[in-house]
Amino acid sequence: MISTASAVIGSRVSVGHRMLALTWLISPLLLLATWALVAASGHYSAQLLIPPADVWHTFKDLLHSGELLEGAAFSLRRLASGFVLGASGGLLFGAALALSKTVEVYCAPMFHVLRQVPSIALIPMFILVFGVEETFKVLLVTKAVFFPVALATSEGIKAIPRSHFEVARLYRLPRYSLLLDVVFPAAAPPILTGLRVGLTRAWMVLVAAELLAADSGLGQMIEMGRQMMRIDVVMVGVITIGLIGFVLDSSLRLLERRLFRWKAIKE
Amino acid sequence: MNASLDQRWLASTSHSPGALQIRELSKHYLLDGQPMEVLKGIDLRVKPGEFVSIVGASGCGKSSLLRLIAGLESDYSGDMQLDGKAITTTSLERGIVFQDHRLFPWKTVAQNIAIALKRSPLTRQEKALRVAEHIRLVNLQGFENAYPHQLSGGMAQRAAIARALITQPKLLLLDEPFGALDALTRISMQRELQRIWVQHRSTMIMVTHDVEEALYLGDRVIVMDARPGRIKYEIDVDLPHPRERHAPRLQELKEILLTELAGSDADK
Given an 8 Å threshold on Cβ–Cβ distance, is A170 in contact with B149? Predict the structure, then answer.
């Protein structure tokens, strides 16, 4: 009796769990259904509101022709170079801003003004100065990553309790060890949040830049689709961009969870 | 365990005790632009290997005194010397254990203890060996790879004590080290500390609120008074270590100390 009862409860729990694991599917499915219904109603021209099935076909075509992967590869390469530059620059500058009074006095006001300028607002100037080639796009990504990372690093380091620094002083830790053993690990959680924010913003501004001036990349694919009235291509581009952004952010979140196992798990 | 290992263990966990001499030590802070005297005219001599307890009402500057001796605060008047050397900043010759364990949450127990050896010329293996010895000294075997949040308060404090002792300081300062622990853990930690001290006879100064703790561990108990912080009274605890917690002599001394402390409260 007891074993049957517990088996029933067990199966109910596992069914519940499986249901819970799939609930996230409800909203995209609803969206897809609404889209299909509205498209089928004939209210809008089929050239403007493409039915989901057609977009799916275009997606497969673009995938097989290699066009989609090529575009994504170009975009991701720009993102990667800009991200590495911006993140390392932001990390160093943020640490200097938090740890050195001199750097703070000289650079803090300018830094806080510049970080208010939206990356998109810099596109025209960057094009004038650097031309429409790769440099301008990579630098735009660098800028988009640099500021959130620098801000998170400097605020994160400033928030480190004084007691940690006292322990470092008591054991007379050399400077490199102060940075590697105390400062960066202590500030790592906010820094990683800054990296996530930076990555998301960089991805957005990169696509915008590619829409305006590019001969390759996902943004350019969308722009070409628009010019040729291929809204299906536009939609494939839009969805791919969203998915890539999601995957990038999720992988950083996964990294977050792996890195910060030392934190107490609050349930 | 063979003899040579035993000897090495003793050699590397033993401490050569230091003599502390403090003369006319005063310290003030600025509070809203007004100077506030925290310590005034402190004179204190601690013999090598002596255990001195300091008790007093909160605000009597006893923690400030320890921070000054540790070298965490500069800007004082007077004279402080350890073995004839003036105290100007922090040094590995002076260890300190705080009420909060102050372990780095992102490091394991072993890594936290090892960080105290960053400046040590020992090889990697020697360091690992010494960390293991000190983990044994504070009875934390099996928890080398645990993170601080996985430890109980008492265990975290043991790790903090191991970290403070691993540099073989001449003087160990203890700032209410068991103040945050529950009563039972506290008693067992006091016994542990007594064992460690008897084993090594390093010079120790402990600040505490707990009169019983002060008497149980101290060769001498110093009562401090507040505003400005100064030494009011001193009592020798003429009992050999290790001690029996309920020794009648300790009870007598406790009565005397409590009267002294009540007196300093009534002054306010």
Answer: no
